[in-house]
Amino acid sequence: MTEIYAEARESMVLSQLRPNNVTSDSVADAMNTVPREEFVPKALRGVAYLDEDLQVSDDRYLIEPRVFGRMLQAADIKKSDVALDVACGTGYSSAVIGQLAQAVVAIDTDTELVEKASQTLSALEVDNVAVVEGALEAGNEKQGPYNVIHINGAIETVPMSLIDQLADGGRLICVIGVNPGVATLYTKSGDDVRAKALFNAAVPELGSLKSEATFSF
Fold first, then answer.
1. In 3D, which of 66, 69, 118 has the Cα closest to residue 90?
2. Do 129 and 167 touch, CB atoms closer than 8 A?
3. Quick one: which of 173, 184, 178 has its CA closest to 53?
4. What pLDDT score was predicted for residue 217?
5. 217 assigned to some structural domain
6. Number of folded domains in the chain?
7. Residue-wise pLDDT tens digits, 139-183
């Protein structure tokens, strides 16, 4: 069974990532390393490598591989980076980002999801990801600032509280809007924050991220 999943991961890279402008070897290698099937319910393991968003709880999904891969590529994550993974769900995105970054703080609101993510990451011996429970829009200022912030799911606006947690030169990658949304990269230079629309991306809405104070451009 392990070999079957390994073949499915390699096929995901070759048939979903590479034909869809994921040219980064580091992103491809990271997604070819992390066992996606370990982060979904057992009933979904057989479809873990389809190019679809996979629901893991009421408001949490694993973003489809080609979109997730392009987002990570745009974030240009470096081995020296500290990253914040918002709405980490079962921890898949955190594990992949952990392959690329020095350290990852993964945050979610649901106690059961936090425990599940922590257990799975521990079982896979992922030792550079810390999973914490908290409000998504609050981020985790204590461990910041962050070189990279990744948000799992489509949102209408980015909370200013997350923008404030970006380090100088930091990048925040997310999908703005739905049906479809637009993958958008925010970059911070001093007090200046700029947003760049990248590509259309239809991913599920992240309804539990509240944006009272927002950043607009």
1. 118
2. no
3. 178
4. 47
5. no
6. 1
7. 999 999 999 999 999 999 999 999 999 999 999 999 999 888 999
Kindly state whether residue 215 falls inside one of the protein's structural domains: no
What is the DSSP track for 77-141?
Answer: --TT-EEEEES-TTSHHHHHHHHHSSEEEEEES-HHHHHHHHHHHHHTT--SEEEEE--GGGTTG
Q: Using an 8 Å Cβ cutoff, are 78 and 147 in contact?
A: yes
Residue 176's H or E segment, with its range, is strand 166-176
Distance, in Å, from the CA atom of 106 to the CA atom of 173, rounded to the nearest integer, reads 15
pTM: 0.95
- Nearest 5°: phi and psi at 204? -60, 150
CA 63 to mean position of chain CA atoms:
8
Report percent pLDDT > 90 for the chain: 91
HSE-up (13 A, CA, CB side) for residue 124: 24
What is the average pLDDT score of the chain? 95
The reply to whether 214 falls in a domain is no
At 166 the three-state DSSP class reads: strand
Q: Is 148 left (phi over 0), alpha (psi -120 to 50) or beta?
A: beta
| Contacts with 41 (C-beta within 8 Å, 6 or more apart), sequence order | 56
The pLDDT, as a whole number, for residue 215 is 54
- List the CATH number of the domain containing 188: 3.40.50.150
- Tokens 């259309």 label which residue? 200
Amino acid code (one letter) for 137? E
For the chain, percent of residues with pLDDT exceeding 70: 96
In a domain, 216, yes or no: no
